[in-house]
Amino acid sequence: MIKKISFIGSGNVATHLALAFQKVNIKIIQIVSRNEKSGKLLAKHTNALFNSNIKNLLKTDLIIICVNDDSIASVAKQIPDLPIVHTSGNNSIKIFNDKINAGVFYPLQTFSKETPIDFKTTPVCVEGNNSSFEKKIVRLAQKISNKVYSINSEKRKHLHLSAVIASNFSNFCYLIAKKQLDSENLKFELLKPLILETAKKIINTNPILTQTGPAKRGDKKVIKEHLKVLKDDNYKKIYKLLSENILKEYEK
Question: Do 179 and 131 sit in the same domain of this protein?
Answer without folding.
Answer: no
